[in-house]
Structures are given as structure tokens and as C-alpha cells.
Amino acid sequence: MATAAEARTWARGALRGIGDSLYTPFCGTDGEDIDWDAYRTLVRYCVGDLGHPMLWCTSGIAEFWSLTIGERKRLLEVAIEEARAINPDVVVQACTAATAPKDCLDLTQHAAQAGADIAYIQTPMMEAHGGEGVLRFFKYIAARTDIALGMFNSPSSGYVLTPAESARIYEEVPAVCATKEGAFRPEASRRLHELAPGLAVWECDRTVYRAGWLRAGIVCPAQLGTAGYLFETPQRRQFSEYWELILNDKLLEAMDYGRESGMDQFDLDIGSWWTCYPGRSDYFTHWGGAFKYAASLLGLPIGAYPHSRPPQAELPAEAKAQIETAYRRLGLVGG
């Protein structure tokens, strides 16, 4: 675990490679229980079979808003237990976001005690008084914990920090060392780097990596939270191969690989089901049922209850058909 004082030095060396954001497999009546065997299998698959060096736990894809505090703690504990048994050096990132600062504090303190390396706080989802309110939230947590902290700047919060607001948090809260910029606004990430050049930035827009932003130091060499396990298999490790080209500054080769492997076409074929519910098309979401359906196509266990918990909707047949077609065209699902 990186302490608050060590956070920024630690981040420069430790945050590297693919970080898998884990879904939560549900079971029982209306998904009221968690399939722990399925979850353990997922962790072992990501860290062991795929060899990915980082995990991202209890965040958007995990549907953290629908989980109890106890469930979130146990999910992190199980992930650490299974992952470290395979790779003692795996970097475990915990999302400890909550609307109540005391709940966020409880989760962040637990993350440190359980052995997580860093805790990310998503911009609070309710009643955030802009950057000033989010800064107060971070200061409250940082004053009572001793662990590296990261920002998770997602439009699913309903409020996205400006580059100036994020830079101020970085300036005033020394434990903050990284940010996942999930709003797909590269120009803001470039500005944030100018304002806070020591902050480790991951930009969700993949095109910036092909544009040489890693070489320029604008983004860090880590995917802080992505569903990398949905883009490859142990037999066809195309996502890892693509990412290695980026890390080694072979940008033309990476562009060719993205086109020739089918990865670029897959982005178009899959559509927006992972991040958009048609009934609220202006809102960015992490549709757990869509991620889990994709995982099921790859043979990963998703629990006996395949849907998201409320307040998300069940994935429609149209979405399932489009997702399956995309995977068949990519070649990760048999013809």
C-alpha cells in the first residue's frame, strides 16, 4: 500500500499496464446475493490467465451504487486474497465512492487495512456544490486516512470536474496522485496536465494514446480502470499486444494493429450498450448487465442472476444480439 506521503512517487513507478474493472456476479432472488465462486474465478482469470497487472474494484462496472457497504468491503477483500495469491505485486485499486462522506471514509479506511494500494473517489453523485464541494470531500477523507488517493471524474456522477477544479484538488491534497478521466474530453485532460503535470492521468478516449500523448507525458502508462478482459482471451491476446505497442511507442504499428485485428471495427459494432441506456440517452451509465452479458459470451461466470440490480434496467434482446454479433465478427466468439 502507498501511504499518503509516498503516493506521488509510488504512482510514477507502480501505475503501469492494464487495470481490469471487475463486475459483480449476482445470484439469488432478484440478485440479492453475490456469487462468490464466480467472482473469485473472474479475479483469477484477469490476474492469472490474462496476466493483467492491475485490478479496479467496486467501481462503476461493479455497480457500486447497488451494493451494501459490507458487500463492497468483502468484494475488495476477496479480490486482494485471490489476486495476491497469484501475483503478490498486483496493483489493487479500490473505488470508495459514496454520497455520505462518513461512508466513503469507512470504505477508504477499510481499503487501506485490507491491503489495497490506492483508493479512488468518484465525484459525489448527489448535491455536489461544484469543485469547491468536491475539494471539501477529498480534504475530509485525506485528513482521516493514510493511503494514496485518486480522482474518478465520470459523467455518471452528473457533475464533471473542470481541469482547474481537479488541479486544485491535486495541489491542496498531497495524497491525490492519479485520476481516471472518464468524460471522453481529451482537450480537458491536456489542460489538466498543463495545470498539474505531476498527476497521473488516464484518458478513456483511446485515440489520444495513438496521438503520442504517452510519449509527451500527458497520460500515464496505465489503464487505471477498463474492462480489458472483455477485449481478449488467453488464446488471442490482442488487447495486450496492442497496449504493448503503445507502451513501446510503436504508434504506427499500433494503428495498423487496431485496424487489422478488428479492434477498431469492434468499437463500432458493439455500439453504446455498455455506457448508454436508450431511455435516457443523454446520460452516461455503466450498464452492468451489458458488461456481464459480454463476459458470458467469453465463457466467464456471471452468476445465476444475469441482470443488474435496480435502479438499472434489464438488458434487452436487441442489445444482446448486437453485442454477440460484434464478438463473432471480432472472432472472440466462435462462428
TrEMBL record:
Gene3D superfamilies: Aldolase class I. Pfam families: DHDPS. One of its GO terms (molecular function) is 4-hydroxy-tetrahydrodipicolinate synthase activity. The keyword Lyase applies. SUPFAM superfamilies: Aldolase. InterPro entries: Aldolase_TIM, DapA-like. Keywords: Lyase. Signal peptide: none annotated. The keyword Lyase applies. SMART domains: DHDPS. PANTHER family: 4-HYDROXY-2-OXOGLUTARATE ALDOLASE, MITOCHONDRIAL, DIHYDRODIPICOLINATE SYNTHASE. Belongs to the DapA family. This is Dihydrodipicolinate synthase family protein. It comes from Mycobacterium stomatepiae.
